[in-house]
Design a protein that fits this description.
The complex is a heterodimer. Chain A is mostly helical. Chain A has one domain. In chain A, about 80% of the residues lie in helices and about 0% in strands. Chain A has 4 helices and no strands. In chain A, helix 2 runs antiparallel to helix 3 and helix 3 packs antiparallel against helix 4. The mean pLDDT of chain A is about 90. Chain B has one domain: Up-down Bundle (Four Helix Bundle (Hemerythrin (Met), subunit A)). Chain B has 7 helices and no strands. The longest helix of chain B has about 30 residues. The radius of gyration of chain B is 19 Å and the shape is elongated. The chains are: A mainly alpha, B mainly alpha. Chains A and B meet through helix 2, helix 3 and helix 4 of A and helix 2, helix 4 and helix 7 of B.
Chain lengths: ~100, ~190
Amino acid sequence: MKGAVAMFSCSVNRIWLLLLAATGVTFWLGESGLSGRAGMAPVLVMFALAFVKALLVMLDFMELRHAPALWRRLLVGWLVLVTTGILLAYWIGQR
Amino acid sequence: MTTSNTLHNPPRLVGDLAVWLIILAEMLAFCILFLSYAFARARDVALFNASQSTLDLHSGAINTVLLITGSWCVVRAVQAVRADASSMGTRWLLAALVCGAGFVTLKVFEFSAKADAGIDLSTNTFYMFYLLLTGFHFLHVIVAMLFLSILLFKTLQGAYGSHDHHALESGAAFWHMVDLLWIVLFPLVYVMR
């Protein structure tokens, strides 16, 4: 129990657990067959999760939170470009 | 207050600038690959969905867990080394390498299963992208593991500590990039349909 409390008190550990939980949801979307059956919604969810996961890795693992703003903008900009581009392409494919 | 904080902790890019420029170049290359995949898929959704269903979702998800966990281990290693707990740092680095090795092993099985099924770059557009994207990413994992092995060896020798952790931070940034790319690659190639 004490170990569990210590584990959760460290923000890096909390982020790791969050990343694992988000991965679980993405896996479930694929495994349940929801991805491909329920239109755009599952794809929006999985890329929203991918966005948050990647953002956490950038800000807290790569420590860009305290980096010069230019580098933060470059990487977050990359993430915005990639995810919106993928979603746009998916939407085009659905029509 | 803010001013004094800024004075004491000015913004800092953690790791070497050259490594960050490499990271940026790699990310641009992957951005082009990701978007090319997505738009190629839009032109032939049925083919991409049919081919994608032959991929092993379980192995893709386990690989995601391995890379995320490996990244977390490296963060803990850097934290330990900065606090002069280098033996702890060594253990975290070793754990990260074990995660990397797990990823590589699963991927080798995946690639060989595809090769046994007679799938190669010329099979169809989906498999061409699948092999290019995951193969290119695989090479990055190998390179990141080589960096990490060298860093592990140097940490073991006591080369890093609160006085010097620059190289370790640079290697860590590259390792996290590999994780970052997989976080996008996994839903894109394995799940989205």
